[in-house]
Amino acid sequence: MAQQNVFEKLHQLLTSGQARFRVVDHDSAGRSAEVARLRGTQPGQGAKALVCHVKGNGVRRHVLAVLPGDCQADLSRLAQGLGGTRASLASPREVTDLTQCVFGAIPPFSFHPDLLLVADPFLFSRFDELAFNAGSLERSIVLNTEDYRRIARPQSIDFLRRND
Q1: Domain with 99 in it
Q2: Domain count of the fold of the chain
Q3: Where is each YbaK/aminoacyl-tRNA synthetase-associated domain found (predicted)?
Q4: How many CA atoms lie within 13 A of 64 on its CB side?
Q5: Is the dihedral of CA 65, 71, 75, 80 positive or negative?
Q6: Mean of the pLDDT values across residues 15-39?
Q7: What distances in angstroms separate CA 14 from CA 33, 115, 124, 139, 164, one per listed residue?
Q8: Are the beta carbons of 105 and 4 closer than 8 angstroms?
Q9: Inter-residue contact 161 to 71 (CB < 8 Å)
Q10: Has this prediction a pTM greater than 0.90?
């Protein structure tokens, strides 16, 4: 029930925002590369959303951190970007409470007032469209990248893991 509500909220938000998007129903897949193949997109088009805790220096926040599906997050950089000293992934229960979704089905939108939406700027630099699970492991949305940025309005924080 909650998964359908998340999809309905997304669909309504994108439609009312006159976004260019399409819905893709597909089999469930566990890895970014697998789901990209099922969607007919590239792994880097995936908008991976991680629910995190950021703490330290008086900061205590839940954050929905969005990054390309073929990249990894550096949680220390995420914490620093928000003025904290450390960050960790939220528990499965917290993820469900804050997103009404299960791991892997979290869209890159926050519908909870206590969940700050941030995105790494690299997400916007490579593809004209982003793809993400829309509250379900079997349903995705492929959305124009600039429409995502305009409608979701995530805070920009550079938090990708660097291999240098």
Answers
A1: 6-156
A2: 1
A3: 29-151
A4: 29
A5: negative
A6: 93
A7: 25, 19, 18, 15, 38
A8: no
A9: yes
A10: yes
